[in-house]
Design goal:
Elements: E1 5-10, E2 24-29, H1 67-79, H2 96-103, E3 117-127, E4 130-139, E5 142-152, E6 158-165, E7 168-171
Antiparallel strand pairs: 1-2, 3-4, 4-5, 5-6, 6-7
Length: about 180
């Protein structure tokens, strides 16, 4: 085991302070030759004082985002091909998931060369626990409309119950062909 020894060393051209005492500095030596021990990872010199490690701060919690705005982004990610359909598995109810499975392979909201974005999203609350929303999706110069319905379950989680895009409908009451 290596031990550190501390010895006072006079500064080159050591100065004498006002009290007549010669100023010195303390150096640290880890071996008689003054070299670092093998396997040392930090590149700071001996005797370097490191700042204390700060406690972890929890990540910033974003401000409250309405559920229809969150779902507009989620549905866009699936219908543009950026996320797989099974990503929405626990976030849909009724026939909405099966209809998304049929719609997603065609990626109706994908545009060549540009990523589609939600330009705007509005929600209407016809009754408590239900939101009917519409979003405009822009990809380059192309703008598409998407409408969807969210229902809040007994566990207070929102789930998508229906989706409609440019005349193509997915969800409750959809015609199967």
């Amino acid at each position: 085991m290596l031990t550190k020894s501390y010895r006072p060393v006079s500064e080159p051209g050591g100065r004498t302070g006002a009290s007549g005492v010669r100023t010195t500095r303390t150096t640290t030596s880890t071996s008689p030759s003054g070299t670092r021990p093998t396997g040392r990872r930090d590149q700071s010199g001996p005797g370097t004082v490191r700042p204390p490690r700060l406690p972890r701060v929890p990540p910033h919690v974003p401000p409250h985002i309405p559920p229809h705005e969150l779902f507009a982004e989620r549905l866009l990610a699936v219908l543009s091909g950026r996320r797989p359909v099974h990503w929405m598995l626990g976030q849909t109810i009724g026939d909405a998931y099966e209809q998304l499975v049929r719609l997603a392979p065609r990626t109706p909201l994908r545009a060549r060369g540009t990523n589609p974005v939600v330009r705007g999203c509005r929600g209407f609350h016809p009754r408590p626990g239900v939101v009917e929303a519409s979003a405009s999706i822009a990809a380059g110069e192309q703008v598409r409309a998407m409408a969807f319905r969210l229902e809040q379950g007994a566990d207070l989680r929102w789930r998508c119950a229906a989706v409609e895009i440019g005349g193509e409908r997915a969800g409750a009451g959809a015609r199967r062909t």
